[in-house]
Design a protein that fits this description.
Largest sheet: 6 strands, mixed
Mean pLDDT: 96
Number of domains: 1
Strand content: 25-35%
Radius of gyration: 17 Å
Distance between the termini: 36 Å
Number of strands: 18
Bound molecules: manganese (II) ion
Low-confidence stretches: none
Structural class: mainly beta
CATH class: Alpha Beta
CATH architecture: Alpha-Beta Complex
Shape: globular
Strand order of the largest sheet: 4-3-15-8-9-12
CATH superfamily: Fumarylacetoacetase-like, C-terminal domain
Number of helices: 4
Helix content: 10-25%
Amino acid sequence: MDDRDWVFAPPATPSLEVQGGGRFPLRRVFCVGRNYAAHTREMGGNPDREPPFFFTKPADAVVPGPEIPYPTQCAKLHHEVELVVGLGSGGTEIPTNSALDHVFGYAVGVDLTRRDMQDEAKALRRPWDLSKGFDASAPTGMIVPVASIGHPKSGAITLAVDGAIRQSGDLADMIWTVPEIIAYLSRLVALAPGDLIFTGTPDGVGPLARGAHVECRVENVGKLDFTIR
Ligand code: MN
């Protein structure tokens, strides 16, 4: 407890459980858009290797479940299962060939999206940050340390709703790899310990209704499941 003259108690540090013990304190959440060719096509984009683009979510939008509230004022909530990278150190202008040295661990996450709000914002050329960065918009499982699993470069990434597979891809199909994403992002911002990076979703994104049970898996990383309430 420091002795600064807070006018009210500072908010608690958002965090994730680490497999094997301890907690990973969260700083910022960066998300890569359109990083699998098949998903880029389903969203109407060009699947050629264009520079990556990024958006953000608040750190306190990261929640483990088991229940996720259906967002208010939303008619089309979409799921996007993603490999999540947790940084243990940071920097600027990080070279691609040493970028993985900054990764503490990996997790399974879902980039929940208010697709109705996002579509409207795109059509009106308005910012779409609130369609991505709303409360509880980043359900994320345990951080699994690199020390136990290394760096997953391929493996199945899946999401099922009420037992039916909706998304099924492979990490090897990312347009931009994890070290390339870290290197690119570190030229835009100073990356820091506690930063998370959502690395994009395979195709098959779709709507979630209230009561939907969502089960996600990333091979060799783990799983995440939650229910929409
Ligand atoms: Mn996404």
